[in-house]
Amino acid sequence: MDISVLSNQKRLQILVCLEKPHSVSELLAKCDLSQSALSQHLLKLKHAGFVMCKRNGNQQIYQTKNKQIISVAQAIIKLI
């Protein structure tokens, strides 16, 4: 896992939003990001091994690979 992706506050917020699985459109409603920015952050989180993506029809559903990362993200957010 590449923990350097956790240095970005938006990616930390995305991880916290993924407490339960969400589609990209659901994440867009929760995050203050453009669709392209959200997609880039999700791709970095996926390549780093923190999230995974499943297809459900024409939607991509994202969820964390390990629920403990949500607690880590919340703790880092409190520190910054």
Provide a descriptive summary of the structure in words.
The structure is a single chain. The protein is an alpha+beta fold and 80 residues long. It has a single domain, classed as Orthogonal Bundle (Arc Repressor Mutant, subunit A). The chain is built from 4 helices and 3 strands. It has helices spanning 9-17, 24-30, 35-47, 68-79; strands at 22-23, 51-56, 59-64. It has a 3-stranded antiparallel sheet. The chain is globular, with a radius of gyration of 12 Å. It starts with 8 loop residues before the first helix and ends with a helix. The mean pLDDT is 94.
Please sum up the structure shown.
Helix content is 51%, strand content 18%. By secondary structure, the protein is of the alpha+beta class.
